[in-house]
Design goal:
TIM Barrel; 37% helix
Amino acid sequence: MLAPLTNQQSEHDGSASPFDQEWIRQLAQGDYALIQTAAATVEPGAKAFVRQLGIHSDEHIPGLARMAASVREGGGLSAVQLHHAGHRARPELGGVPAPASSTTVPGTDALTTEEVEEIRDSFIAAAVRAETAGFDGVSVHGAFGWILSEFMSPMLNDRTDKYGGSTENRARLTIEVIEGIRKACGPDFQIGWRLSVERYGLRLAELREIVTEILDRELIDYLDLALWDSAQIVQEGEFRGKTMLSVFTDIPRKSVRVGAAGKVRTAQRAGQLLDEGCDFVLIGRAGILQRDFPRQVRADPRYESPQLPVTAQYLRAGGLSERFINYMKGWQTLVY
């Protein structure tokens, strides 16, 4: 699967640009089983990035529909990643910080219970737009300290209403979003959930408890573990010495599929992840460097991604837009 990749090449109003369409068209020919879009805003004030893709308006549907059609024509499944920046929304871009706690953003009050419910409903409405546009499903962004991850964190969530306090309450927003999408879009619409387990005050044992419930209830179709390094070892606590991946692949998953991202740049590493309990592997940077990474792996079991960093000209020659390349230049380990 292709991981959701921020690329900052949409129009300023969130509409899919010709650059978005060409990026998806290239990927659609690469033999991915499922392709996710970049993080798409579920509300106008949810923005975290310049030129971020949007799905908060019906006006976004025509452009999204062309993206979905490209993936379908290439033979893969498609998903829109649903995103809200929460307290990290950027006012200079029109974002409105929406913190779980009053102490997170100086001078900004915590969301009221009613405002939390409005954001929940915005996720659900965005999923309906994705279905209308012809996508096979959505991926709910619950990683990297964005709003759903923020609510999970006892460091960032000191609420005393039904969305704060206990582990169950802090997970409530995520579960209500997922359940609401299922009710609105039906049993055949795929729901993925992207989860990160590091930083932002997240607690590994709590996340394992939440994942166990979600998998047991089969609330989602797939779990996308967004690890910085898929081979990393837990350094402390009750899971010390285990791989981070095994903490979650050991959980009974019923019909849910589980996969991971994190420095997967070779055919060998992709195969190892399957051996370590994953049902699928998510490709990020390797897909930027080589749009048809799955096809390369299928052709050569010894395939390795180009060494990093690469030149801007290498990306340009591969068909990446100048907007995407300029964004990549901010990652010095990627482009020079």
